[in-house]
Amino acid sequence: MDIKEYGWDEYFENEWRSNPTDGMFPGRITADYGQMFRVVSAHGEQLAKRPACRHGNSMQLAVGDWVALKRLSEDGQFQIMLALKRKTKFSRFAAGGEVKEQIVAANVDTVFLMQSLNRDFNMRRLERYLIAAWESGAQPVVVLSKADCCENADEKIAVVYNTAPGVDVHAISCVTGEGIGDIKKYFTTGKTVALLGSSGVGKSTLVNTLAGRELLKTGEIRENDSRGRHTTTHRELLLLPEGGLILDTPGMRELSIWDADTGMEMMFSDVEELARLCRFSDCRHQSEPGCAVKEALRTGELDMERWNSWLKLQKEQKHLKGRKEAKLLLQQKKQGKFAAKSRKEFYEGGARHEY
Ligand SMILES: Nc1nc2c(ncn2[C@@H]2O[C@H](COP(=O)(O)OP(=O)(O)OP(=O)(O)O)[C@@H](O)[C@H]2O)c(=O)[nH]1
Ligand SMILES: [Mg+2]
Ligand SMILES: [Zn+2]
After folding, report:
1. What are the pLDDT digits (tens) for 266-305?
2. Which residues line ligand 1 (CB under 6 A)?
3. What is the C-alpha end-to-end distance of the chain, expressed in Å?
4. Distance between CA 293 and CA 277 in Å, rounded?
5. I want to staple 189 with a disulfide (CB 3.0 to 4.6 A). Which of 3, 95, 243, 294 is the partner?
6. Could you tell me the distance, in angstroms and rounded to a whole number, from the CA of residue 205 to the centre of ligand 2?
7. Do 89-248 and 3-83 have the same topology in CATH?
8. How many Cα atoms within 13 Å fall on the side-chain side of residue 3?
9. Are the C-beta atoms of 142 and 169 separated by less than 8 Å?
């Protein structure tokens, strides 16, 4: 197997050389099964164990990561020893209330932000995905699926163009084949495209359509509300027969953004620019004189919905930043206690040894 087909390039070659990788070989994680990963390498595909936990703090690995593998025994046991620095990573705030970054996909070149044209279409949700995508370092592309189920696709495409200036938008149908030819251009040798979106938008169906066969399981959507049933349960990276890689993911219930600074700037540069034009640098854009935002809302230069969206995202980010800082403080406090305890043990121990 030629690992270049899986995206190995000069960047990773350099990373490889700058790490202690003697006696190891490179591989890319293609599936995450919890304690085990499926990894592809020049020796084919194998299962590999997670790296050993150090200080109870195991490194987070994600599908798409390039890792260094070691053969543990002749009977085909492999262990991941280290991960190479990522080119890009798509993260979110981990679900379940914990303050933790969850890496959804690593080393992705393009992310398809998928929404279906029948039921799932929602601009506020798309904004979140776009922010996270810009933050990831990968190129976002909006893919509107199930064009065969929609009468006014053109109108919806126009709405997306307004929300996401400069981002490619495609309407596709896996039933009629519409638009599939156009999106093939993103799949070239060694390049990785990740599919993200709610359950039931047709991510796995698109993989099967591009692969030309049933590689992945797909599921009917619920009749009453057209939502998906969370058919895909783990992330998986696949090589397409015509070249290029596709990363299927389980549908996300919600996307809480982990980091948003770059993403907000990319998505809302017009709003942020306006806010900088206010007379007072600490303008709250409420009733202050010389508020450029209020003025733009009055003239219609700034759309009210877009402004509300920005406000909501700002507020959410502030809240999440507060939670992150609180966690950091707690960690530092714990580490401080640990250091003090070790110091105490060291000196007391040292004193004992002297006698
Ligand atoms: N009409 C129509 N139905 C489609 C299209 N693409 C997918 N579907 C249907 O939508 C349903 C859900 O498709 P999946 O591919 O399983 O959706 P998914 O995004 O992978 O969902 P999860 O794995 O749950 O995240 C299936 O019944 C598909 O047949 C399309 O282009 N047109
Ligand atoms: Mg799926
Ligand atoms: Zn203002």
Report:
1. 888 889 899 999 999 999 999 899 999 999 999 999 999 8
2. 145-146, 148-149, 173-175, 199-205, 218-221, 228, 230-232, 250-251
3. 63
4. 8
5. 243
6. 7
7. no
8. 22
9. yes
Coil, helix or strand at residue 347: helix
- Which pLDDT score, from 0 to 100, does residue 55 have? 47
pTM of the model: 0.86
Structural domain boundaries in the chain: 3-83, 89-248
For the domain made up of 3-83, the CATH class stated in words is: mainly beta
- The fold of the 89-248 domain, in CATH, is Rossmann fold (3.40.50)
Nearest ligand, CA 199: 1
Q: pLDDT tens digits, residue range 74-122?
A: 777 899 999 999 999 999 988 777 788 889 999 999 999 999 998 778 8
Do 183 and 143 contact (CB within 8 A), yes or no? yes
The span from the CA of 277 to the CA of 273, in Å, is 7
